[in-house]
Amino acid sequence: MAEITKRQRLEAVFTGHKPDRTPTIGGWIYCPEHICALAGVTLDDYWASPREHSIRAYEKLGCDGLIDIGVPATREDFRIVTPDSFRRADSGRMLEDCIAQIDAMPAPQDIEASFDLNAEYAAFKRHMLASQNAIGEMVWMPAHWANTACLSWYGQFGYENYFMLVALHPQRIARAIQVSAAQAHCRNRVIARAVTEGIFPHALLCGEDICTQRGPMISPDFIAENYAQPLRHSLQPLVDVGCKPVWHCDGDVRPIMDVLLANNVKGLQGFQPECGLTMEYISSLRTSDGEKLVIFGPVAVTTELPVLSPAGVRDLVRRAIDIFADTAHLALFTANTINPDCPLENIVAMYEAVKG
Fold first, then answer.
1. CA dihedral of 243, 249, 255, 259, whole degrees rounded to 10
2. What is the model's pTM?
């Protein structure tokens, strides 16, 4: 019997079938020292060609797919954080400027009517094929964070302006959400075409950070009223071709889980068990069609991977495989980026655990 390929293993999970073993996803190790140890190179070698050596490291771990190839911004930076990373806390803009920007946005129907699918797809296809060629047998399956309707406008307006807009000008934030949904719908038409041509797999990591450890930043009622339909519209092209939108779960997303699953979210990625996102809870969830979810996870980088022993990590992975065996379709991944506080031996143990 021919050995199953990495792509076949992942696609079995994404299309609701049983793989030969649980597939693994990589790409989020933001620790150059760990990459160097895996690839057998020096730090100077790494910084001369970080992507190349990262690919070799993920091959060494036996990853089936790559979400990203995480590289810190500079030698001095942690993860992807730089001195400019928190400017969104205060954008320096007046509320009136944010209102004017929203009012000047094009109509959603005009965005979709003017979208040049052929041109956008040609550029996307070139980039996908080049990236896939660079990583060999592993599957290039990048996250697309802009491919959902945008609820987290704090990234553009700053937190204070954002919360004031939600409270004082909800109709304007609702309009911004609708505009972003149209833009995301167009982007997902590109992804959907790539799926039908076998260039992109049948699952896409997407979503946004709208929850803290205490729940959503804004009212779940506001989200249900103003975000549900745009979210559904933004993801519809993927669902139409059988591609599963997999939502990134940061914080406690339980108060809005019903909205997500009712509006075309077909999978979840994360999770933080300290926020109630336990394996037992996750395994109980179903799509709006009653189907099992696709899960990217569930190894936590807060309370599990940094603190357990290698044996504890292996036990955790095997427990996840057992829990999700009949309740979900699992691809092993972490809840978030793997940072220097996660011991290398634990990372290796996580990826080796799927092999028995």
1. -20
2. 0.95
